[in-house]
Amino acid sequence: MTRRTLLTLMPGAAVSLGAMQPSGGKARLRTALCAYTFREALKAGKMSYQDLVHYAVEHKLDGLDLTVYWFPEPLAESWLLDLKRLAYRNAVEIYSISVRTEMTRPTPDLRRKEVEEIKKWVDVAALLGAGHIRVFGGRVPAGATEDQAVGWAAEVLAGGAEYAGRKGVILGLENHGGITERAETIIRIVKQVNSPWVGINLDTGNFNKDVFRQIEMCLPYAVNAQVKSQMRDDAGRVVESDWDRIFAMFARSGYRGYLALEYEAKEPPETAVPRLLARLRELAAKYSA
Q1: Most exposed residue of 149, 248, 251, 270, measured as fewest CB within 10 angstroms of its CB?
Q2: Nearest-CA neighbor of 53 among 66, 41, 72?
Q3: pLDDT tens for residues 67-115?
Q4: Which fold has domain 25-287?
């Protein structure tokens, strides 16, 4: 084995962004639920993460994206392993966790703390067997320019990716306002980091204008997707999401991965989510290989 061949096999080795994309062919769409959908029940203790596993089985889902905000504190390894075993025994993949980050911290010390926070959650994801973590970029701090904030976010993301790659975990930067409000900027950050362990966690409901154009721009870099039941039109009004059009876009791009429902509308999730998940399953089957 040559040194060049060995380097291509190392998780932390530098490779081009193109290497993280599917090799071509038809899309492979998988269904999932984001835990944030049931945030009020989880926050109140009326639903547990274990309940989410059983809910996924009931609604014939492939996976779960676990927002970690309501994990028990202190977080015990035994709790994580019990949850992992439960999911495995029910053929539900915990493929992703979603965490809070603020990568645009204005001082080196604060940015180092953000990297350490990412590393902590990488260890949790690896223990659960999750191959992906949703992260946030952050907002432009007072007195700073957008270019400075972009550079700081890329610095933190690169530091996190170096560790995540050694654990086999991909970091998905979400289009979540702030410096990631526009597709052009989030793509700029991902390209600047230039790691096979970094991509875009594409939220279909978070762009404020030119929504379909911006989704299409992000699709080549998408490593996970969270689909919303609502989005904004070009006038900024909240409208129902055109899922058929969105799923068709994912299919044309050759996307292979999960589309997790993240429900945030006014109708109670107890009644809305089952209906939406049925539609999610229908469209994933329609547009998959």
Answers
A1: 270
A2: 66
A3: 999 999 999 999 999 999 999 999 999 999 999 999 999 999 999 999 9
A4: TIM Barrel (3.20.20)
